[in-house]
Write a structure and sequence with these properties.
By secondary structure, this protein is mainly alpha-helical. The protein has seven helices and three strands; from the N terminus they run ββαβαααααα. The longest helix is centred in the middle third of the chain and has 38 residues.
């Protein structure tokens, strides 16, 4: 996804934001919230995608914290030769004339495709970031506010890019939900 957005999460309990941070921090906060409000129903969202996340809260705080601690991979010493570029091989299906054109490009098909992707990202970056932000906001909004008054109109405003109308439609929603949807709807910096 977009590397400008750190891997953070946000948790809500009954429309109120209870935590934002790493998955470990949020998981511990959700466990504490469940212990103090056992009748509540916490929801956790990835701030990068707006998708809800399920947490395994078995055990005490130490067990939950350990479960969601990121392991740091050991550093492999650099050897001689060409550095690893992180190249991933995948299948691409093109028409024969496309393959012919790619083969005739300097550096071959791989170099030409990488250049085309870089160019498309450079020119379509703002549109891509806007679409990703809208999708992120919609995922969280539909879970947090799908049954709230004005949801349908707020969705239309979000997809139309009409922030003023979106804010107006969300006026009766819990303040933390409104703020979170607007936060996710902002495109990440280029």
């Amino acid at each position: 996804m977009n590397q400008a957005i750190p891997l953070t999460y946000t948790a809500f309990l009954d429309g109120r934001r209870i935590a934002t941070g790493s998955l470990q921090e949020v998981a511990v906060a959700v466990l504490r919230a469940q212990l103090t409000h056992p009748e509540g129903h916490p929801l956790v969202f990835s701030n990068a995608s707006g998708q809800s996340a399920d947490l395994d809260l078995r055990g005490g705080e130490e067990a939950v914290a350990a479960r969601y601690t990121l392991a740091v991979p050991p550093q492999v010493p650099k050897g001689r030769g060409r550095p690893k570029l992180g190249v991933v091989a995948r299948e691409v299906t093109l028409l024969p004339e496309h393959w012919d054109w790619l083969a005739a490009q300097p550096g071959g098909a791989s170099v030409a495709l990488r250049k085309l992707v870089h160019e498309a990202r450079r020119h379509g970056g703002d549109q891509d970031r806007t679409r990703q932000a809208r999708d992120r906001a919609y995922h969280a909004m539909s879970t947090l506010a799908g049954n709230l008054a004005g949801f349908e109109e707020a969705s239309r405003a979000l997809f139309a890019g009409d922030k003023e109308r979106l804010v107006a439609q969300m006026a009766a929603w819990p303040e933390d939900v409104r703020a979170y949807v607007l936060q996710l709807a902002e495109p990440a910096p280029g």
